[in-house]
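Support request from a user on the community tier.

User writes: "When I paste my C-alpha cells into the form, the page sometimes reloads and wipes my input. The last time it worked, I copied everything first. Here is what I submitted, just in case something in the input itself triggers the reload:"
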C-alpha cells in the first residue's frame, strides 16, 4: 500500500502542472538593432546621434514601418524639435538659413552619426566648407585671392542656422571685419594711403570671399581708385575732413564726366541723376558689377521700383527682366522718351528682335503700326509670350466680329481652345490671312493621316490641290465636320454636271437621289479611281444583296462583266434615261460585246433562230445563273428541251 506522502507529492506536481498551463506566455520584444546589426555597425562610427547611441530607433521611426517601407514619425523639422526644443528660438531671428527656413535639417546633418566624416561636429554630412558648397557655387570662393576666413571655414563669419544680421553674419559688417583686422595698425593705414577708413563699409571695396585681384578688391574699379589717386575725389588724408569731397558730392562726378552731364539734360531724367546722387546706383570705388553698380541691376532697380518688383512673381517674364537687364530698354540716366525708354515703339523692340522677322508681305496691323504693347506686356504676365491676356481673349479684343461668327454648332478644336496662333502668325507672313503655311500644308500638319491619299489615283482633286476650304470652314460651321454645306449641295458646288443630269433624266440611283454621295465616294480620296472606298463590284454589292446572293451561290455561272470588269460596264452610277440605269438599251448593250450575231457559232447556239433585234434578257440573266448560258431559272418546256422549231422557223 502506497504511503500518504507519495500521494501528496503526486498531487502537488499535478496541481503545479495545471497552473503552469494557465499562465499566459510573455512576449519578449526585440530591439531594431537585434536584426539590423549591419546598419547599426555602420552608424556606430564617429559621433552618434543620441537615439542611435541609446539604440532607440523608435524615437524617430515607426516600429513596423508602413506597407513594408521604413517610416518616420514625422517628415519635417517638427521631429527634430521634439528633442532639440532649445533650438526653436532660432526660427524667430530676422534671417534664416534656407534649409532651416524650409525645415530641411537633414540637408546638412546626418540623422544617425558622423560616420561619413568621423571628426565632424554636429553630425555634419561633409567636411568644413563642403557642406556649404552643396548649395553655394564653389568657384565663387576659390578665385585667385581667397579670404583667409573662407579657408578656415564659413562659420567664422556666418551662423549656419540664423542671425539678426543679413547673410546670417555673426555680427554687423565692419564690426565683424574688425575681429581680425586692426584698423589702427600701420600696415592697415598704409594700405589705405593714410586715410582713416573707420566707419566706412569695408565691403564697398573688398569682396568677403575671393577675388581675381589683389587684396580681395572687387572685379570692376573706378579709374581713380584703380590708379590709387584718392585725392582726385577726396580731401587730403591730413585734412580735417579727409573723406569729404571737393567739390560737393552732387557735382564731383561731373568734374570728369562733363560729357555725360550735357547728355543727361533731357525731358526725362532719372531721379538719382537729377538729385545728383550718383552713388545711389554706382560704387565710387569698386564693384563686382559692370559700370561699378552697387549690386546686380535688377535688385538695384527694384530697391526703388518696388511696385515693378511684384511683377517678377508672374509666370512669364520678358527676357530683359529674367536676365536682369532693365537697362536693355530703359536709359538709367536720361531720355527724351516717356518712362526713360531708349527708343519709342517697335524701334525699341527691334534692338533685340529682328525687324525682318516681323515685317512681311502680310503684316498684322498692330505690328505694322509699331504697337507691340497692344498685345505684349513689356515686363511680365501670367500668359505665355508675356501676352496681356489669354490668347483667345486677346485676339477677340479686336476680332469681335469673328468671335460672333464662331459661335456655331461645330467649331475647329483649335478655335474652341482659343489657339489662334496654331494657324496664324501673330506678326507677319508671306501668305494671306497671316497663315503660317498654305492651306493644304497647314491642315496636314495636324491631319497627317490624310497625307497618304495625296498621290493616289483616287485622290479627290480639291484635296490634292490643298483647297480644303472649298468644303470646310476653317473656324466654325453649323454642319458636321465644319462643312460649308451638308450633303449633295456641297458636292454640287463643283459637280454641277451631276446635278443637271439628275434633273433631266428619268431614272436616278437611289443614293444620288437622296444626296448621299459619301455612300460611294470618300471625301478626301482613296487608292481607287473616283475615290471609291472599295472596288466597284464589292461596293455595289453592299447594297444589292439579292445579286450578291446569286453570285455567291453554289454551281453558279457569273456574267463576265460582273465577274471581271465591274458594274459600270453596263450601268451608270448616277442617273440614266434607261431603266436599271443602263448605259444604253439592253439589246444594244449586249451587242457591244456580242457584236457579230450572224456567225454560224452564234446561230447554232440559238437553234439557228435569228436573234437580231430580239430582247436578250427575255432568255438570259444579266448577272448570274446556274446555267452556263446564263438562262433564266424557269424555262418554257420547248425552250428547255431546245425544241425551238415548235414555235420558231429555222434558218435554212
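"...and here is what came back when it finally went through:"
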Amino acid at each position: 500500500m502506497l504511503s500518504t506522502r507519495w500521494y501528496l507529492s503526486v498531487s502537488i506536481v499535478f496541481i503545479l502542472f495545471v497552473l503552469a498551463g494557465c499562465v499566459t506566455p510573455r512576449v519578449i520584444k526585440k530591439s531594431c538593432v537585434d536584426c539590423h546589426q549591419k546598419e547599426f555597425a555602420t552608424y556606430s562610427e564617429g559621433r552618434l546621434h543620441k537615439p542611435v547611441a541609446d539604440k532607440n530607433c523608435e524615437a524617430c521611426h515607426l516600429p513596423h514601418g508602413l506597407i513594408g517601407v521604413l517610416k518616420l514619425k514625422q517628415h519635417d523639422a517638427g521631429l527634430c524639435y521634439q528633442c532639440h526644443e532649445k533650438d526653436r528660438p532660432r526660427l524667430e531671428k530676422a534671417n534664416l538659413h534656407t534649409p532651416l527656413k524650409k525645415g530641411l535639417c537633414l540637408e546638412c546633418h546626418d540623422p544617425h552619426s558622423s560616420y561619413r566624416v568621423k571628426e565632424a561636429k554636429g553630425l555634419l554630412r561633409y567636411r568644413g566648407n563642403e557642406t556649404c558648397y552643396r548649395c553655394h557655387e564653389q568657384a565663387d570662393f576659390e578665385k585667385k585671392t581667397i579670404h583667409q576666413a573662407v579657408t578656415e571655414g564659413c562659420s567664422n563669419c556666418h551662423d549656419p542656422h540664423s542671425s539678426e544680421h543679413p547673410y546670417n553674419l555673426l555680427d554687423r559688417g565692419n564690426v565683424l571685419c574688425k575681429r581680425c583686422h586692426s584698423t589702427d595698425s600701420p600696415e592697415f593705414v598704409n594700405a589705405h594711403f593714410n586715410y582713416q577708413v573707420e566707419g566706412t563699409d569695408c565691403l564697398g571695396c573688398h569682396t568677403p570671399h575671393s577675388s581675381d585681384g589683389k587684396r580681395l578688391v572687387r572685379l570692376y574699379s573706378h579709374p581713380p581708385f584703380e590708379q590709387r589717386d584718392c585725392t582726385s575725389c577726396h580731401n587730403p588724408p591730413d585734412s580735417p575732413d579727409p573723406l569729404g569731397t571737393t567739390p560737393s558730392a552732387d557735382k564731383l562726378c561731373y568734374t570728369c564726366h562733363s560729357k555725360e552731364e550735357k547728355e543727361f539734360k533731357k525731358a526725362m531724367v532719372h531721379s538719382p541723376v537729377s538729385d545728383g546722387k550718383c552713388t545711389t546706383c554706382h560704387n565710387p570705388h569698386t564693384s563686382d558689377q559692370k559700370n561699378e553698380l552697387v549690386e546686380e541691376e535688377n535688385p538695384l532697380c527694384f530697391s526703388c521700383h518696388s511696385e515693378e518688383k511684384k511683377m517678377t512673381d508672374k509666370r512669364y517674364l520678358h527676357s530683359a527682366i529674367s536676365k536682369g537687364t532693365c537697362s536693355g530698354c530703359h536709359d538709367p540716366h536720361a531720355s527724351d522718351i516717356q518712362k526713360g525708354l531708349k527708343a519709342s515703339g517697335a524701334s525699341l523692340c527691334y534692338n533685340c528682335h529682328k525687324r525682318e522677322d516681323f515685317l512681311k508681305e502680310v503684316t498684322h496691323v498692330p505690328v505694322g503700326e509699331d504697337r507691340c504693347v497692344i498685345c505684349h506686356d513689356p515686363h511680365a504676365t501670367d500668359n505665355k509670350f508675356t501676352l496681356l491676356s489669354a490668347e483667345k481673349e486677346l485676339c477677340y479684343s479686336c476680332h469681335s466680329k469673328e468671335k460672333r461668327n464662331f459661335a456655331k454648332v461645330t467649331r475647329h478644336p483649335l478655335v474652341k481652345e482659343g489657339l489662334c496662333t496654331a494657324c496664324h502668325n501673330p506678326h507677319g507672313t508671306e501668305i494671306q490671312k497671316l497663315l503660317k503655311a498654305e492651306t493644304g500644308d497647314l491642315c496636314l500638319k495636324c491631319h497627317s493621316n490624310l497625307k497618304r491619299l495625296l498621290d493616289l489615283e483616287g485622290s479627290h482633286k480639291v484635296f490634292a490641290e490643298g483647297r480644303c476650304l472649298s468644303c470646310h470652314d476653317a473656324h466654325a460651321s453649323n454642319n458636321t465636320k465644319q462643312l460649308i454645306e451638308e450633303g449633295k449641295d456641297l458636292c454640287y458646288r463643283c459637280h454641277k454636271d451631276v446635278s443637271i443630269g439628275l434633273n433631266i433624266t428619268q431614272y436616278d440611283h437611289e443614293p444620288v437621289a437622296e444626296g448621299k454621295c459619301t455612300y460611294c465616294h470618300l471625301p478626301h480620296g482613296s487608292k481607287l479611281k473616283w475615290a471609291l472606298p472599295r472596288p466597284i463590284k464589292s461596293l455595289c454589292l453592299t447594297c444589292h444583296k439579292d445579286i450578291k446572293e446569286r453570285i455567291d451561290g453554289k454551281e453558279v455561272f457569273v456574267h463576265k462583266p460582273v465577274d471581271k470588269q465591274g458594274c459600270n460596264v453596263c450601268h451608270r452610277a448616277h442617273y440614266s434615261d434607261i431603266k436599271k440605269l443602263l448605259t444604253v438599251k439592253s439589246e444594244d448593250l449586249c451587242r457591244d460585246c456580242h457584236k457579230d450575231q450572224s456567225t454560224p457559232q452564234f446561230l447554232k447556239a440559238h437553234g439557228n433562230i435569228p436573234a437580231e433585234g430580239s430582247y436578250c434578257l427575255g432568255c438570259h440573266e444579266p448577272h448570274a445563273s446556274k446555267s452556263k448560258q446564263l438562262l433564266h431559272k424557269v424555262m418554257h418546256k420547248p425552250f428547255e428541251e431546245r425544241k425551238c422549231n415548235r414555235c420558231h422557223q429555222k434558218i435554212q
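Agent notes: The reload is a front-end session timeout and is unrelated to the input. The chain has 33 helices and 20 strands. The first helix runs from residue 4 to 22. Escalated to web team.
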